[in-house]
Specification:
It contains one helix and ten strands; from the N terminus they run H-E-E-E-E-E-E-E-E-E-E. It is mainly β. The strands form two sheets. An eight-stranded antiparallel beta barrel has the order 1-2-3-4-5-8-9-10. It has a two-stranded antiparallel sheet with strand order 6-7.
Length: about 200
């Protein structure tokens, strides 16, 4: 009788464990997030007390969640500002890649009326380069209209899912640091704000 009991217990354990084993063996779908946003970046002219201005443009952002919220992201941003100094404009492109962590927050609580939407928040640290052009940059030999330098951004945002993979990037806030020449330490410390449309797909 005891042999039958232990044989039955063994078979039950096998059947209970097999689905978990299969789930571990089956590859999990790759989550890819895409976003197109309007972007405004608060910058300043280093040689004045403020001389603050806004670079306005857009961003294309892509991220892939690889394992338990951890993944990678890439960001391409372009911005333009007129008359940052008398008769001087500024155009800037920045491309950066790096790690991202995404946390699903479930659904909105009942603080808001209407339909509930799944949300996620993410934080990232991206590194790459910034390219300024059609402007004036000081160099050791004079002035040049273009310059390229190291750039980084650290920040995060909130995605709200709507339907069929589409959603909105309700807000993204980033600290952006670049090293374009400016005769005052050659550093820029900017605040970037973005919002726009997002899309999530599962790649098997």
């Amino acid at each position: 009788m005891s042999k039958i009991f232990w044989a039955g217990a063994f078979l039950m354990g096998v059947f209970a464990f097999t689905p978990k084993l299969r789930a571990q063996q089956e590859p999990q779908p790759l989550l890819v997030d895409l976003a197109v946003t309007y972007t405004a970046e608060r910058a300043k002219i280093a040689t004045t007390n403020c001389g603050c201005f806004w670079l306005q443009g857009g961003s294309i952002n892509a991220g892939a969640t690889l394992f338990r919220g951890l993944g990678v992201a890439a960001n391409l941003t372009g911005g333009h500002s007129s008359d940052v100094a008398p008769g001087v404009d500024l155009n800037k492109l920045a491309f950066m890649v790096g790690p991202r962590y995404t946390l699903g927050t479930g659904r909105w609580t009942n603080h808001f009326p209407g339909p509930k939407h799944a949300t996620s928040v993410f934080g990232e640290a991206l590194f790459g380069f910034a390219h300024g052009f059609d402007s004036i940059f000081p160099t050791s030999s004079g002035l040049t209209s273009t310059a390229t330098a190291f750039s980084m951004q650290v920040g995060g945002g909130l995605n709200v899912a709507l339907a069929h993979g589409f959603g909105i990037r309700a807000l993204e806030i980033d600290y952006v640091r670049s090293s374009l020449p400016n005769n005052a330490g050659n550093n820029q410390n900017d605040l970037r704000l973005s919002f726009g449309l997002s899309y999530r797909l599962h790649v098997h």
